[in-house]
TrEMBL record:
Membrane topology: Multi-pass membrane protein
Annotated source species: Sinanaerobacter chloroacetimidivorans
Record's keyword annotation contains Ribosomal protein: no
Subcellular location: Cell membrane
Predominant location: membrane
UniProt record similarity statement: Belongs to the ABC-2 integral membrane protein family.
Signal peptide region: none
Transmembrane segments: 21-39, 150-172, 193-220, 226-248, 260-277, 312-334
Protein name (database record): ABC transporter permease
GO molecular function per UniProt: ABC-type transporter activity
InterPro entries: ABC-2_transporter_component, ABC2_TM, ABC2_TM_bact-type
Keywords on record: Cell membrane, Membrane, Transmembrane, Transmembrane helix, Transport
A Gene Ontology term for the protein's cellular component: plasma membrane
Domain ABC transmembrane type-2, chain residue ranges per copy: 115-337
Length: 340
């Protein structure tokens, strides 16, 4: 009987907590649906810039899941930089020259395999078995490991995830324990409370970002082509964005458990839009409204491609803009607790 009473109490508690019940029943379905559409829309075709090559070779590329794009050498280098193509190929004096973006080893290996198959098919039909291939890695390296591919994404995600969770729960506790209401009864302004929390947690996030960046680069020995200081800047901005977003969403939660419920809805879906999958243009556009997309993009540019600050200024500006927006919304939402 005591067990039965306990079971009934839990069921009644869940019945009264509509948000938790909805999350248990609907969140897995929403995530599975999202994954289904993303994987179903992902493409396996790779773009390759063709600077100079026979038409038969170009046709062979089509047959090997490669989309050839005719371009000049300067255009090919720019498209490689903008990640519009995975490689650029040209044939001169019986030799195949390939400039390769090895930042993603999976794509690079697939592209090389397809281009090799296209070359062999052409060599066979032309009775030319002497075509040699020379590969130049513009980004990445031939021995790039899987962790090097996704390490930048993991850095951004881990910083974002833990900062979002801890800041949201901490700000929620300030409200549920009455500390926030006491603060609002003093002459302190709402914006001063928000800025104070952001700066207070910001000091901790600086330490957190520094430890993670140094550990990944110097202990785990992840590929680092660009500036470590830029990596620190990006991880700090990731933490600040997650911090202000966590504070914002904590105003919608009544308990720590409800705060955790936002993770599969707000944080987890962002991972699928950070370059982990090749998305269709429609789904790629959805990813551009998510903070983690710009964090992963900036880290990839710096760590794998050696980009400078001028190359990531848009990502930095957008993360700063989102942080500012979330701070403003936090200030506005504090009115619901006490008008001062």
């Amino acid at each position: 009987m005591r067990i039965k009473a306990m079971v009934l109490r839990i069921l009644n508690q869940l019945r009264n907590d509509k948000r938790t019940l909805a999350l248990i029943l609907c969140a897995p379905l929403l995530l599975l649906t999202l994954i289904y559409f993303i994987l179903d829309s992902s493409t396996t075709d790779l773009n390759v810039g063709v600077i100079n090559a026979p038409q038969q070779y170009v046709e062979n590329l089509y047959e090997n899941n490669i989309i050839p794009i005719r371009c000049s050498e300067s255009e090919a280098m720019q498209m490689l930089k903008d990640q519009q193509i995975i490689a650029a190929v040209k044939m001169i004096s019986g030799k195949v020259y390939i400039d390769l973006d090895g930042g993603n080893s999976t794509k690079a290996t697939a592209a090389l395999s397809s281009m090799e198959a296209a070359k062999k098919a052409m060599s066979s039909s032309m009775e030319r078995a002497d075509l040699k291939t020379e590969i130049n890695y513009v980004y990445g390296a031939s021995d790039l490991e899987m962790f090097d591919n996704f390490g930048s994404l993991l850095i951004g995600f881990l910083v974002f995830f833990f900062t979002f969770l801890i800041s949201g729960i901490s700000f929620l506790q300030e409200r549920t324990t009455g500390t926030l209401e006491k603060l609002l009864s003093t002459p302190i302004k709402r914006w001063e409370i928000v800025v104070g929390y952001v700066l207070g947690f910001g000091i901790v996030t600086v330490i957190q970002s520094s430890i993670i960046a140094f550990f990944v680069v110097y202990v785990l020995d992840i590929m680092m082509i660009g500036s470590l200081w830029l990596v620190l800047l990006i991880t700090l901005l990731s933490a600040m964005t997650a911090l202000t977003l966590g504070m914002l969403l904590s105003t919608l939660a009544a308990s720590e458990f409800q705060m955790i419920q936002f993770i599969p809805i707000v944080v987890v879906p962002q991972v699928f839009f950070t370059g982990l999958f090749d998305l269709s243009p429609e789904w790629a556009a959805v990813g551009k409204v998510m903070p983690l997309y710009y964090v992963a993009d900036a880290l990839d540019k710096v760590m794998i491609r050696g980009s400078r600050f001028s190359d990531i200024v848009f990502d930095v500006a957008l993360l700063l803009g989102l942080t500012t927006l979330f701070m403003i919304l936090n200030t506005i939402l504090l009115k619901r607790y006490r008008r001062i």
